[in-house]
């Protein structure tokens, strides 16, 4: 009988690179030698884009892995209260989920994979539209909170005991840190860079679209900043910030990557290592709660998966809806 515990490290490394993170966690729990090999080697498991569903029980958090088309249930240690009516996820970045309790006016960061939790300063009971991690590393993290009916945003950082308020001209719907500067997008589609001197780019389509039409900012692997604008129920436009002219240019090709957009989080993900992901596509939830892919090149929509996540929604608006899913990229740390 084969001694699986005696597998050579190079063989274990090949196996690890083919495993999704949940399978990797199970793999390293098989025996002591595999666990040590996983910790000592530089091999990392495959990372996939997931959808996080709103929890409705204490069984655990439910995630849907898009490339594999299957669900994962993850029990978060010591966080059972998160799955009651007290806590609600309001954002996700860098492998962390941001939870808000309107009941207690508190907020915390949770890593569903490692189980680590970070308590944030008390923020108050005002309804939160969304929260974002602008950065997350061993030295620092920065969390910002946006409100759907209030201009500006609140911000806190690692080691801070309170939140600072920052004013803006209009209600903000998204914010991102790009090349050391903050960029925001407001309800009119105007993008502004918070730098000296400041600069704003009004949306070319502002006169043709109502307020609250979906708009988000995403940085792609090439280092460019793009703006994703929803044009209708099943259509999107993408604009890239030209570094040379400092102007926005509409494009229909984002290369070998896919975009995953939603109210609470939007991310860009390489498609080349995932045969079940379609490059140059925007993955989104349509009005009928279907996971769909919009092809930028030919302007068509394709059904990916039917999701049971609540009643039909109006996707023209970005106001928080508790039945919405959240895009989540798992991380081991």
From TrEMBL:
Pfam families hit by this protein: Beta-prop_KIB1-4, F-box
Gene3D superfamilies: 1.20.1280.50
Domain F-box: 7-47
Signal peptide: none
Domain of life assignment: Eukaryota
Name of the molecule in the record: F-box domain-containing protein
